[in-house]
Amino acid sequence: MKNSIVSALLISVALASTAYGSAIKQTKGDFEDKFRQLEEVLPTPNVYRNASGEPGERYWQQQVDYKIKVSLDEKKRRINATEDIRYQNNSPYRLKYLWVQLDQNRFKDDSIANMASNFGGMGRRGPVNTVGDANTATKLNLNELRAMHFKADNELGYEIKAVKDSRGNKLTFTVVGTQMRVDLPKPLKSGDDVDFTIDFAFNIVEENAVSARSGYEKFDDGNDIFLLAQWFPRLHAYTDYEGWNNKEFLGRGEFTLEFGNYEVEIDVPADHIVSSTGVLTNPKSVLTKTQRKRLEQAKKAKRPVFIVTEEEALENEKAGTDKRKTWVFKADNVRDFAWASSRKFMWDAKGYKQGGDEMPHVMAMSFYPKEGGDLWKKYSTESVIHTMEVYSRFSFDYPYPTAQSVNGPVGGMEYPMITFNGPRTELQDDGSRTYSQAEKRFLIGVVIHEVGHIYFPMVVNSDERQWTWMDEGLNSFLDGVAGREWDPTIPWGVEPRDIVGYMKSQHQVPIMTQSDSVLRLGPNAYTKPAAALNILREVILGRELFDFAFKEYAERWMFKRPTPSDFFRTMEEASGVDLDWFWRGWFYSTDHVDISIDKVYKMRLDTHNPDIDYARLRDIENNKPPSRFVERNKAEGKELWVDRNSDVTDFYDDNDRFTVTNKERNKYQKFLKDLKPWERKTLERAVKEDKNYYVLEFSNLGGLVMPILLELTYTDGTNESQYIPAEIWRRSPKQVRKLIVTDKNKELLSVAVDPGWETADVDVENNHYPRQIIPSRVEAYKAKKSSDKVKRDIMQDIKTKLKTEDDKEEKNH
Ligand SMILES: [Zn+2]
Questions:
Q1: From the CA of 195, how far away is ligand 1's center (Å)?
Q2: Which residue of 112, 558, 658, 802 sits 20 to 30 Å from the alpha carbon of 789, by its own alpha carbon?
Q3: What is the pLDDT of residues 279-312, one digit of tens each?
């Protein structure tokens, strides 16, 4: 109950904030225009973003370049770094201060994320105070306790040692939670740039303890894998649509960032292997000759080539060293920078020959410990390449020189050119490593998904803190395309049928809700928009129009910063189809699809000729079921008065109420005479053809207007599909009728709505006319006694022998 009140509240807030239906108010009747143009809701086009959904003639975005020197203290699990930042103000405005994101501060005790954490999350039972009732205790997850312990035991968040200008003078700065304002000595004019430096350090979090999209993982062999992301103070985005993005990092809504060029020197133990955003610029000082040779071989290999083999990684794992090495990476035009380091890494690579002028050759690479096993050796790098092959078709050539998949403690996370992916193998008693089918599917799926993010939002730089769907939804749509091109027997979860349960649930908000406020992020920001785009492509626009428009969007906004309106406008303009009803229904409302076929009427055209029409009426009368009363009287042998007195008759014994007189025949002749020639011709043709006129009556129970996909089955065994565009609901959004005309001998047997489950219709029971029997299951079960639960016979149990460590536990399988 509590949850449903909360969700109702949020829905109304979200609707009000998008001005949904507020510009015009309907006070008479209950008609709702589901086709109202979105122009009333979308931001007014301007010189930065035009009405076509393109970057406007004076589009601008800031540029931020970083030179970073970072050192990994393996023993203390601590980062020390200095970053030189060059901020280029391309906006038409003067800036007196700059805002910097301090994501590591989320782990501080006094962060908003920590202080505002709501115990138990959604849906869990509140505290129970029934003394002694162990079965109803409130649940505190051991994971939550572990996170609390970790935060209590470690000093977390940034230590900002200094913020200085290019001459070494201190700059004033103010930390506000996960953000920092740096005051400039003099305002930064439009077109100018400013250099400044931040010295910082922080203790790395243990990813498995706090779940941070990065961090270290410690292994029993004494080694760690370090995944570093959100690790350096990054400039907040400053944009034409909202100025400085000043949304605190709460852990949910991801990142809004600026493009720039990076040069990063990473100082790590000498036996570590580093995977990073960018290209390694000093291979000679960190790689052996053999490793460099293998990298060269990998470029043209058919299958991934090991740069660091399993045996070599196992050797590294045993030894350890006090020596250090510095890996230098350079990355151009990226919006972020992440890296990974471990002596446990083996490393494989395979070149992807992309062709084209921009980046004809890309290195796909994977880094993983022995725990990755065959699963990683076989599928990681190949999945990276498959992703590029499919995504490039839908957008643009992969624009960077490397694409990497790194195994570590993060389930799945994306950064430019580098992704973190979690699945692993399991060590068995006989020393072998096995993996479940689910783990295999997870690996292929997560690599495709995370590498897909290098396109959206790493290149098509949407605002993740605002709109999770713009990266996750678009990316889930495409990873579903790529996934089904890999192996369609794997359930990819993006089919319309996959969102039916969510769509009818009460606990949801419109897709167009700010990331941190979304209820149920998975279905809201991933599955629903992905399924909606699938429906748009497969049902509404068709592949040709959709693919053209989607590619247009990707190309327009490559290395730029699109907003939802730019996506909506581009998809409409490039496809040539007004889709405002679709965005309204799927993205701005919580309506669902439920179209019911309620009734089908069969009609026959009246000829006006009394000799034909009265005879037909007589047939209809005679075809009615006879009265049971009369039948039973007959069966009992009851004799009728009229039969017993057959000598008494009159005119009506030979004529019924359908008998035609000349009065009617004359009237018919006059009717024909009064018709205009074209009217008479039309009537005569219709009478001659004597077609069947069927009226199909539909109701819209879910509120979302959608095309009606019809399958008509005829008595002669044939089928026919018919597509009724969503526009049929335009002036009658709740109920519509459709006239279907067939040849005289083509009689309708049954009608089905959306028989292929293509529209996410939540109730398929009402999709058939006549209705069908619903297949279901029933399970016989043994009733439990309520006393079973409290059976704790201490008098008996006290005799139990204490088990020792040596007693073999039965293994659970
Ligand atoms: Zn994602």
A1: 33
A2: 802
A3: 999 999 999 999 999 999 999 999 999 999 999 9
Mean pLDDT taken over the chain: 92
Residue type for position 628: R
What percent of the chain has pLDDT above 70?
93
Taking the centre of ligand 1 as the mean of its atom positions, its distance from the CA of residue 526, in whole angstroms, is: 8
What spacing in Å lies between the alpha carbon of 475 and ligand 1's midpoint? 7
Q: Poorest-confidence range of 111-125, 127-141, 606-620?
A: 127-141
Q: Is 433 left (phi over 0), alpha (psi -120 to 50) or beta?
A: beta
Beta-bridge partners for 95: 188
Q: Which residues of 409-437 are buried (b: 16+ CB within 10 A; e: fewer)?
A: bbebbbbbbbbbbbbbbeeeeeeeeebee
**Helix 437-452 crosses helix 373-394 at what angle (to 10 degrees)?**
40
The CA R_g of the chain, rounded to the nearest whole Å, is: 35
Instruction: Report the C-alpha gap between 350 and 362 in whole angstroms.
Output: 9
Cα-to-centroid distance, 628 and ligand 1 (Å): 68
Is residue 769 helix, strand or coil? Answer: strand
Residue 593: is its pLDDT beyond 60?
yes
Cα of 615 from ligand 1 centre, angstroms? 70
> Per-residue pLDDT tens for 330-351?
999 999 999 999 999 999 999 9
> Any idea what DSSP says for residue 392?
H
Q: What is the rounded CA–CA span in Å between residue 585 and residue 577?
A: 16
Q: Separation of 456 CA from ligand 1 center, angstroms? A: 9
- Residue linked to tokens 């700010």: 514
Classified as helix, coil or strand, 362 is: strand
Instruction: Please write down the HEC assignment for all residues of 145-159.
Output: HHHHHHHHHCCCCCE
Ligand 1: distance of its center to the CA of 530 in Å?
A: 12
Strands 173-176, 339-342: pairing is: unpaired
User: Does 697 score more than 90 pLDDT?
Assistant: yes
Dist. CA 199–CA 233, nearest whole Å: 10
554 CA from centroid of ligand 1 (Å): 17
CA 347–ligand 1 middle distance (angstroms): 24
CA atoms within 13 A on the CB side of 182: 26
CB 759 within 8 A of CB 503: no
Beta strands, E only, 26-171:
63-73, 78-88, 95-101, 159-165
d(CA 122, ligand 1 centre) in Å: 22
Tell me the backbone φ, ψ of residue 551, rounded to 5 degrees.
Answer: -65, -40
Q: Which residue has tokens 């073999």?
A: 808
Tell me the C-alpha distance between 34 and 32, whole Å.
6
- pLDDT above 80 for 263: yes
Q: How far is the CA of 420 from the centre of ligand 1 (A)?
A: 11
Q: How far away, in angstroms, is 451 Cα from ligand 1 center?
A: 9
Q: Report, as an integer, the average pLDDT of 530-555.
A: 98
Tokens describing residue 454: 């290098």
- Rounded alpha-carbon distances, angstroms, from residue 313 to 144, 271, 318, 776: 34, 9, 9, 54
3-class DSSP state for residue 171?
coil
Kindly tell me if the per-residue pLDDT of 138 is higher than 80: no
* Angle between helices 610-622 and 662-674 in degrees, nearest 10: 120
Nearest to 278 by CA among 132, 401, 455: 401
- 444 CA distance to ligand 1 middle (Å): 14
Burial 336-373 (b: 16+ CB within 10 A, else e): bbbbbbbbbbbbbbbbbebeeeebeebbbbbbbbbbbb
